[in-house]
Amino acid sequence: MGRLKSLLRTLNVWLLPETALMAGALAFMHYADRATVAGFAQFYPYAVYGAGLLLAWRFQRSRLFFSMLLLALASFALLRTAAAGPHGALAWRVTYQCVAVLLPLDLAALALFGERGVLTRAGVLRFVAIAAEVALVITLVRRVPARAAAILQFRLLPGVLFHWTPLGQLALAALAAAVALLAMRLLFREGRIARPALWGLACVFLALQTPRNATAVSMYLATAALIFVVAVLEANYFMAYQDGLTGLPARRALNEALLKIGESYAVAMADVDRFKQFNDNYGHDIGDQVLRMVGAKLAQVGGGGRAFRYGGEEFALLFPGKSAEEVLPFLQEVRKAVEETNFTIRGRGRPRKKPESPRTTRATRRSVTITVSIGVAERNGRQHTPDQVVKAADKALYRAKEGGRNRVET
User: What's the 3-state SS for the chain?
Assistant: First the structure.
């Protein structure tokens, strides 16, 4: 059961909500009648791009702002040149291949670089870069369309390998490079930005597969924009409700969980023993490692408990439907798990790369024991509001501290 929950949690992190949005767009395009899809495509892009730009401006999200701008420009360029008819076939082909090369690289670059603001120096440079790309495409279309088409559709590999797509090999190489860069970011760094960017590129790819279908282009590019909008909303949620250091739900999440809980529950407050002294001796970086380790152990508490980062070195554990006496064995178990964890402090002079024959000395390594004190209280006649229960658990925590630490008190 535990493995199944872990698998579901992993799938949720990697696939949702982007998969649902993309699957919804695909299902709507394939199963709704053409008139309904065409009618919806008339206002859907405007709603998404407008909401995205407003949201980006309100929350100062430059990535979202420039992503909306790029997708809107790409959609306009493809639809405008496609409407030119047979006389503008060469211009459309150049525009299409330029968009296919530039858009994936631009979206990947936005995801890889940090938030730099919109009306800042970096933001102005991004405006200039986008304007330069637009000017380049217009120049190619008007001045040297035939030569530009030949370059953009240059075949390095046999054309028979690419009959399945109208994209040129240069465009496919640009798309592959963008995907590779984002995949590296997703695997080796925090992936909350790279993951929606990858799914956005998947929607861009679908749009570029049917470039002559104006409805499909509008729908899929707007869905890519919607994925970016939802990613910002999700990021704001995690900033408010999840602790960035330990990955545990934050204090605000605890407060809301307490408002929704039933009549019977227990709350435990846990505190890392002598944490200030530890921070003073070893530094805040090591202290952060301690908090991550303790948070990981507390997250594994049994009895249906849920761990939260309360603030500083203090954590909270919430047990719905349990009394203080019922959760004591689970708290003792998690307290022992923290105590028995071998926490090793490495010296400052250790090499960046692990040597083939590492030397372990007191100067380079030192093992320390980390302990926590825990206080627990339950809802009863004396304390019937969440605030009262938390305060009672906090008083029990102080008793555990005064009683010698590394213990659980009720």
Answer: CHHHHHHHHHHHHHHCCHHHHHHHHHHHHHHCCHHHHHHHHHHHHHHHHHHHHHHHHHHCCHHHHHHHHHHHHHHHHHHHHHCCCHHHHHHHHHHHHHHHHHHHHHHHHHHHCCCCCCCCHHHHHHHHHHHHHHHHHHHHHHHCHHHHHHHHCCCCCCHHHHCCCCCCHHHHHHHHHHHHHHHHHHHHCCCCCHHHHHHHHHHHHHHHHCCCCHHHHHHHHHHHHHHHHHHHHHHHHHHHHECCCCCCECHHHHHHHHHHCCCCEEEEEEEECCHHHHHHHHCHHHHHHHHHHHHHHHCCCCCCCEEEEEECCEEEEEEECCCHHHHHHHHHHHHHHHHCCCEEEECCCCCCCCCCCCCCCCCCEEEECCCEEEEEEECCCCCCCHHHHHHHHHHHHHHHHHCCCCCEEC
| Contacts of 376 by beta carbon, 8 Å cutoff, 6+ apart | 266, 267, 268, 269, 324, 327, 328, 331, 393, 396, 408, 409, 410
Pairing of strands 408-409, 372-378: parallel
Chain centre to alpha carbon of residue 213: 32
| pLDDT (average), residues 311-325 | 94
Q: In the numeric block, which tokens belong to residue 147?
A: 């030569």
> Which comes out higher in pLDDT, residue 182 or 352?
182
Active site residues: 313
> CB neighbours of 236 closer than 8 A, spacing ≥ 6?
59
User: What pTM value is reported for the model?
Assistant: 0.79
In percent, how much of the chain has pLDDT > 70? 90
Quick one: average pLDDT of 42-67? 94
Whether 174 and 105 have beta carbons less than 8 Å apart is answered as yes
